[in-house]
């Protein structure tokens, strides 16, 4: 009976993952999972965690709803991992309360803007092999980036070679607009598609007219070859 009473008395979510260390900081729970050789985000992080450090591990992906149960989470450190993919709903459930999010020093080339623009947290995105494109530009313009790390968001790849190796902010300050480039590309593609359809319609009309003309000529020749009514009468 004492054992079952103990189970009932222990609040759910208060246990600590075996690979982590849980401590109290000014009355707030901190879950420390740094340098634990983790390859994915632990499933049993306490629900009352306020600070969560997952830095210096081997995590490669942040799946949807990875932190949804952590409604009290304020600081999340995912720096120095091997993160390559971040799902659109990766931070769903923590967007309102999260104050800082560190994704620096990973392998992130691109990120769905929906994953970050819903956050009010201060973001650190430095030292990733970014592909400079419209989505990243929108994140830079609309998200709350840590001003101390903005200059370290550099273009690892880009539509033009001259942008490679330069800070994204510097490229944008020079007047480059990746979103307008994408829009122009879409406009050109749409124009080519419409021109193709228009050409097909013209060709079809020409073929239709020629075919009808040939049928009319054949029909006329056939009528000429028939004996006339006057000849039969004589």
UniProtKB/TrEMBL annotation:
Residues 15-51 form the LRRNT domain. Keywords: Leucine-rich repeat, Membrane, Repeat, Signal, Transmembrane, Transmembrane helix. It is a single-pass membrane protein. Residues 1-22 form the signal peptide. It is found in: Membrane. Coiled coil: none annotated. It holds the Pfam family LRR_8. GO terms for cellular component: plasma membrane. The keyword Coiled coil does not apply. InterPro entries: Leu-rich_rpt, Leu-rich_rpt_typical-subtyp, LRR_dom_sf, LRR_TM_domain-containing, LRRNT. The keyword Metal-binding does not apply. The chain crosses the membrane at residues 188-209. Its main location: membrane. PANTHER family: ANTIGEN BSP, PUTATIVE-RELATED, LEUCINE-RICH REPEAT-CONTAINING PROTEIN 3. This is Leucine-rich repeat-containing protein 3. It comes from Thinocorus orbignyianus. The gene is Lrrc3.
């Amino acid at each position: 009976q004492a054992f079952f009473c103990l189970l009932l008395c222990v609040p759910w979510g208060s246990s600590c993952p075996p690979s982590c260390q849980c401590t109290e900081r000014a009355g707030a729970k901190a879950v420390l999972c740094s340098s634990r050789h983790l390859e994915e985000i632990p499933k049993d992080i306490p629900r009352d965690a306020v600070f969560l450090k997952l830095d210096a591990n081997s995590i490669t992906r942040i799946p949807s709803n990875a932190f949804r149960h952590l409604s009290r989470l304020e600081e999340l450190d995912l720096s120095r991992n091997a993160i390559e993919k971040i799902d659109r709903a990766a931070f769903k459930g923590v967007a309102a309360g999260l104050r800082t999010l560190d994704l620096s020093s990973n392998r992130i080339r691109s990120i769905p803007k929906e994953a970050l623009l819903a956050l009010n947290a201060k973001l650190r995105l430095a030292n990733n092999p970014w592909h400079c494109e419209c989505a990243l530009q929108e994140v830079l313009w609309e998200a709350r980036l840590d001003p101390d790390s903005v200059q370290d968001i550099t273009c690892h790849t880009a539509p033009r070679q001259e942008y490679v190796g330069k800070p994204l902010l510097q490229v944008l300050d020079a007047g480059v607009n990746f979103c307008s480039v994408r829009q122009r590309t879409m406009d050109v593609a749409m124009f080519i598609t419409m021109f193709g359809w228009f050409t097909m319609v013209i060709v079809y009309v020409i073929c239709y007219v020629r075919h009808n003309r040939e049928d009319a000529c054949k029909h006329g020749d056939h009528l000429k070859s028939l004996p006339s009514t006057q000849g039969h009468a004589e």
